[in-house]
């Protein structure tokens, strides 16, 4: 676990399962201000699930998601949008 609290986005030990299948398993990553990150991987790797977790569409089974040092992993989608996180298709 990283002790820096100045990240724009801090994901720590994030997990979610669907009917016993671990789609995201103990993921930790950090995004600094003015930093760009890319999520790549094959089909079924959990990319969309990770975005769903960050945006609040899918509830996390465990772990933490902090945006601007505020816990958002248990917030409703509309509250996460008000914090400044959204997605466009």
Main sheet record: 4 strands, antiparallel
Q: What is the structural class? A: alpha+beta
Q: According to CATH, what is the class?
A: Alpha Beta
Q: Report the span from N to C terminus.
A: 32 Å
- Global shape: globular
Instruction: Give the full name of the CATH homologous superfamily.
Output: P-loop containing nucleotide triphosphate hydrolases
What CATH calls the topology is Rossmann fold
Overall tally of structural domains: 1
State which percent range the strand residues make up.
25-35%
Physical arrangement of strands within the biggest beta sheet:
2-1-3-4
How would you portray this structure in words?
The chain contains two helices and four strands, in the order E-E-H-E-E-H. It is an alpha+beta fold and 89 residues long. The protein has helices at 47-55, 77-83, and strands at residues 9-18, 21-31, 62-67, 70-71.
Write a compact overview of the structure shown.
Helix content is 18%, strand content 33%. Strand 3 and strand 4 form a beta hairpin. The longest helix is centred in the middle third of the chain and has 9 residues.
Secondary structure: elements and pairs:
Layout: E1 9-18, E2 21-31, H1 47-55, E3 62-67, E4 70-71, H2 77-83
Antiparallel strand pairs: 1-2, 1-3, 3-4
Question: Which descriptors would you attach to this protein?
Answer:
about 90 residues, alpha+beta, Rossmann fold
